[in-house]
């Protein structure tokens, strides 16, 4: 099992390096002297020269890139141009908000999505099935910013029962979380429905159905357990995606999260913050993917037995060698 | 036995086989079309797509207003007979801007899909066909690309290169390459070792020829379906980035940026934001339906 | 300044090489605050900048960069002590977010309320709007060093192509008022100048005369705020009528300057100075990137202006000369002045409206329950 985890960790590295390369190139090739941004208008040629020397800005591309990676690993992502504070601090102060928003959205999406997915599967082609399928299709085609704005018009402007921006009370989280959950909700519904359908068609379920109601429900439960696997994948993938893509929702609802931080930084041409933000989000996403894979490995008996078998083979070999000696 | 005679024999057989093949192909195509037309949702998608393409090619047939000219005496007019969707904060007719916005969005969608399709298919077929180290390297790069979500990648690229339609297309294209690469690679792998490919190799066809003539036609179906669905994704990504201020610069009409500037006015003038959004939804929805229908028609076995 | 002498513990004399009328105005702003020399020397410039020691009614407790400043009452204040013990000033960049602070009751006052939010704030239970004339004026600025704009006819053409009423109305959502002088109307020294009319035909004529009948491409830089971005889009449309193709660059001034070495072509600026010389200072070549100023005659005249005191007839004469000249060279096109808008809690007593938002004095504020 630990070998599997190690392998996945190692696979993360080229991905992160790739992202780091992209963000580093962004900074390297963007016009303007970083010295001028940090030291201000009054900086003299001399000040700029000293600054460049101190920060290794005259070194060749590769050296600068390596330094960038080195600093990033220790948590030094540079200084924000606007607030002159370390980039990592700014990111970390906004991270919990985005995380909370994503979490609420996922939980909501999974609960509602799975629920309706099961009903759709069990009562295939019934009214609920058709309605949920259409809603799911529409949900996937709806741009999230538009959905958010429409919900604001309906619930804030016309009905006046829900707030439209900020995160002060629990009511403030309802609209943004719902908007963010739409795509995942649709995916969960569809995924649950199709995997449940697959299970339901199996012989063991049909026999149980023939045998009677009580047995049928128990078997349905087991069918659901098998259907859970792809749902975990969906959740994992979407959790990671949402962490990166909540930017639009955060902007629409004025939520102080990472996405909004990055977009605002782009609009104010705050290169270190953009760089650091993107790198951080990519790292978080890879990490979440890793956790998802590990959970998946634990839950999927096929992968589990594969690694358990490997271990026992190793043990047997050691034992044999031991006995010869 | 003269060589010429043998050659003649082979040539005749080849022609006969080709004819047989082309006959089956023709009725197969007809089958596909019939299957497609039976799917009502898919037909609906196709109709809307045709309407959108019409808007893209002949905007002047639908509206005579200028999408860019500002008209300060007609600001914030609610939807009425003269202005179907009302006017915006600069007095421009919103229906006109939605129609011209269609041109912008579809162009971005089609061009980016075209670019990423060509590059992705190229990468996927080379990786799948040659295998080994080339395959590993290419797929590793694709993995890196896939690990970054579309929006984030788009944001990074536009932030680095600056805001313009070209950079937007580049950003979206790069993000979609991985899908085509993977699909092509899988298709190539399944077909690579079949007998007729071996036969072609034996008769001395070059690798490129083999790939193009024998292997790719089999991948066509999933690629076409993926391409259609990607247009929807491209439109969503482009409008999303424009909404964030990172897409098409002013004053070009674009659904995302229209929704963005309408944000300040949603309390009093709901029509500024509603109609561009509906347009986005209709476009994405129709391409999704169309793509779904294509997939079901081209290979019913793929239906889940 | 020639020299300064300390008379005694509470008096000092500053001797200037020449008369400087704006002095009293400058001393009334933050630039006139007197810091503690001992503290400055002890801490060093950088530390002192983050922990200033002065003579005001409040002391700095904490400054979280980019987020907020916490102040507490200075018990040793030379005048009557401040009525409220603790004041927190929060930096919130987005206009909507500032309104949210009022809606949730987290803030008692918010500055810089946008036109579109005025009704919303008035609708909040327990809050109202305080609005009045301000010094905040908006101006289109042409770089004095820009090649394309060197021909006076081009600048005149671009002025004639601007419909000032439409520009003001649309970019400020009806809250702004047009101005016809080179300073905010409430300012001492404001002179009403002849109208710069909207005349597209004349504009096209002038462009053709100058040899630019086919127009050219130009970059317009604005700060990333809706009031500027909207105005930019409007100017883009208006100037397209005379074949000028405008590319809008939106971003903070500091960044734009750093990326372009202080050069620009056209930009939209707002000014909040409270004294006429500080408004006209943008023309001076020593003032840097504001206008890329390079006019010696104007530099000399503006210096001269500062030597005449208010009420001196020579000041009015000099001012008229300057204004006429500026009007003639047409390197700026002022178009609008925005009112100062505050969102204030009904429970706040002692609020004194001041047009310059940076001059607001929290000394007398009391919040009642």
Shape descriptor of chain C: globular
Order of helices and strands of chain C: EEHHHEEEHEHEEHHEHEHEHEHHHEEEE
Largest sheet of chain C: 6 strands, mixed
Oligomer: heterotrimer
Distance between the termini of chain B: 55 Å
Uncertain spans of chain C, ≥5 residues at pLDDT below 50?
Answer: none
Derived from helix and strand composition plus strand pairing, the structural class of chain B reads mainly alpha
Residue-averaged pLDDT of chain B, rounded? 82
Largest sheet of chain B: none
Pair of chains with the largest interface and how many residues each contributes: A-B, 45 and 44 residues
Number of strands of chain C: 16
User: What portion of residues of chain B is helical?
Assistant: over 70%
**Strand arrangement in the largest pleated sheet of chain C:** 9-13-8-12-10-11
The helix tally of chain B amounts to 11
Point out poorly predicted stretches of chain B. Answer: none
Radius of gyration of chain B: 24 Å
Tell me the total number of β-strands of chain B.
0
Helical amount of chain C: 25-40%
- Please, what is the average pLDDT of chain C? 83
Strand proportion of chain B: under 5%
Which structural class fits the helix and strand makeup of chain C?
Answer: alpha+beta
List the helices and strands and how they pair.
The complex is a heterotrimer of chains A (325), B (304) and C (369).
Chain A: H1 2-29, H2 34-39, H3 45-54, H4 61-73, H5 87-122, H6 127-141, H7 144-158, H8 171-200, H9 203-211, H10 213-245, H11 247-252, H12 258-267, H13 271-299, H14 301-324
Chain B: H1 3-38, H2 40-57, H3 59-62, H4 94-130, H5 132-147, H6 150-161, H7 165-192, H8 195-202, H9 207-243, H10 255-262, H11 271-298
Helix pairs in contact in B: 1-11, 2-4, 2-11, 4-5, 4-7, 4-9, 4-11, 5-7, 6-7, 7-9, 8-9, 9-10, 9-11, 10-11
Chain C: E1 3-8, E2 11-15, H1 23-27, H2 37-43, H3 45-50, E3 58-64, E4 68-73, E5 86-90, H4 95-103, E6 109-110, H5 118-122, E7 127-132, E8 137-142, H6 152-160, H7 164-172, E9 177-178, H8 200-209, E10 216-222, H9 226-240, E11 244-250, H10 253-260, E12 266-271, H11 276-280, H12 296-307, H13 313-329, E13 332-337, E14 340-345, E15 348-349, E16 366-367
Parallel strand pairs in C: 10-11, 10-12
Antiparallel strand pairs in C: 1-2, 3-4, 4-5, 6-14, 7-14, 8-12, 8-13, 9-13, 15-16
Helix pairs in contact in C: 6-8, 7-9, 12-13
